[in-house]
Amino acid sequence: MALLARILKARLRPAPERGPWQPRPTDARLPARARAEDKGAGRSGAPRAWGRAGGPRSLAAMPGPRTLANLVEFFWKDGFSRIHEIQQKHTQEYGKIFKSHFGPQFVVSVADRDLVAQVLRAEGAAPQRANMGSWQEYRDLRGRSTGLISAEGEQWLKMRSVLRQRILKPKDVAIFAGEINQVIADLIKRIYFLKSQAEDGETVTNINDLFFKYSMEGVATILYESRLGCLENSVPQATMDYIEALGLMFCKFKTSMYAGAIPRWLRPLIPKPWREFCRSWDGLFKFSQIHVDNKLRDIQCQMDRGERARGGLLTYLFLSQELTREEIYANLTEMLLAGVDTTSFTLSWAVYLLARHPEVQQTVYREIVRNLGERHVPTAADVPKVPLVRALLKETLRLFPVLPGNGRVTQEDLVVGGYLIPRGTQLALCHYATSYEDENFPRAKEFRPERWLRPGNLRRVDNFGSIPFGYGARSCIGRRIAELEIHLLVIQVGPGGWAPACGLGFV
Fold it and tell me: Which residues belong to the annotated binding site for heme?
């Protein structure tokens, strides 16, 4: 049986490295620094819950790496490229809650499933993401608006309310399946072209680049309601410029970490991180603005002719007038930035894992053929018919989350793990560490998609050991788009769908 990596063969590249982390309801809140019973104190590996006086312990008593050692680790040894490894190392050394200094920033890391759940379930209506001062500083410098990722408070609530009406629920994004399938068809054509150019006539070596361009084309089709030409043999220059800016942001994502960690007074001595950070954002905003303006001109021309403007997300945002044009620029720029890596990195890891586990590949193939057929072009309604494809995605994201953690800033005093965490403290929720805990996932280091097939597991939202898209009000608003792009592609180009008929396979 021919299943996508005879094209990958023995030269399948490992998937790209992950970037750094961005990132009981009544018991978790502590309005008066006195109430909040710590529910995680008695668990194995949890820190001592209370001090000698019977109350929560202060941050001064919390373990963690020394400031100088942390500076050496991250700035001298390039730790921002290895945050997932350092996260596990510090969890083993200091326990499931510990403190760290990153330059001028102080962070409390939480690497326990139940404590993560406690923090997230305590959130209010507008949770605050981890400190994104460098993002805000750039926007202030250039006179740009914030988008859904960088906004906070009432501004964030307004934007979330507007955008959630179109892309938050599965039924809302199901209408995009046709556009995504067209992009998948172009990807398959591109694969055939690259195979024809290969020395052996069948091996495609850089699948990471292919998936990057597929993801960018797919999400841009939804956001801008237009094609970018990423998968053409001759890519438009404007698209190439954007890919370069996007690549700078992703491949050197640690630059943004350095930009936020280096104090302003040091920038004249260490100018490169901030300069590259601004340059990449300049390119992203410029490209987004061009495509938004082009589409809005088309919509306005339709209206001027007395025609009814029809379209998707961008058309809705323009006609509703609930967001300013600057807010539209910012939101589409940030959503494209967030949407590309979520899909492309995950696809690369999924293909890698299937290539390494042919027995899983065969099982996925048989399910697709049995439930959908070999030549069926799937729609969103077909995805629930192949639960193993959905399980494959969940297991891939458990082992290789796009970001190994998530960030929050406490909006009230909390007691977490027996420690009093004052309001305004940055928290790093260490999802990578929790996803590799055997107590959360038996035989956690093994690739076992079937673990998600137990009754109800595919629909559960409360398994805080692995929440790659976040949780609650501040969860990833583009999750359903990313899932649809990945599910449809795996069905068609992966071990089933068109792949056997085309002679493509995973090796």
Answer: 476
